[in-house]
Design brief:
Layout (H helix, E strand, L loop, with lengths): L1 E3 L1 H9 L4 H5 L3 E4 L3 H6 L9 E3 L5 H4 L9 E4 L4 H14 L4 E4 L2 H8 L8
Parallel strand pairs: 1-5, 2-3, 2-4, 4-5
């Protein structure tokens, strides 16, 4: 499993300004609960985000493409690390990363407009 930090992810998003580059963006798999996602979400033009709570991953894993680059996000990076490990080790995902520090790091390091909780 790879790890990606808030600033590194922000750099990736900035580099995706053209439609062709945006198509190459990974899926952002937000594994927080819906109320958390509604309160504080990472949104960017061209970025596909799926809110799929950790508690539903096993039942809904078939909705995901194991070959698609995927970045898992949660509040601080713990749940997303567990989901990323599950996807890689048990589901055969070939390009999965954990967003270290989670949405909290994004709010502190990149976008203070995203609420902290």
């Amino acid at each position: 499993m790879q790890h990606i930090g808030a600033r590194e992810f922000a750099t990736l998003l900035v580099g995706a300004e053209s439609p062709a580059s945006a198509a190459a963006l990974p899926l952002l798999l937000d594994v927080r609960e819906p109320w958390e996602f509604e309160l504080a979400a990472l949104r960017a033009d061209g970025l596909e985000t799926l809110n799929l709570p950790m508690s539903q991953i096993v039942q809904r894993v078939a909705e995901l493409d194991p070959a698609r680059p995927t970045v898992c996000l949660c509040h601080h990076g713990v749940r997303s690390a567990q989901v990323a490990a599950f996807l890689e080790q048990r589901q055969g995902f070939t390009s999965v990363s954990n967003f270290t520090g989670g949405i909290d790091a994004w709010s502190v390091e990149v976008d203070a407009g995203v609420p902290r909780y």
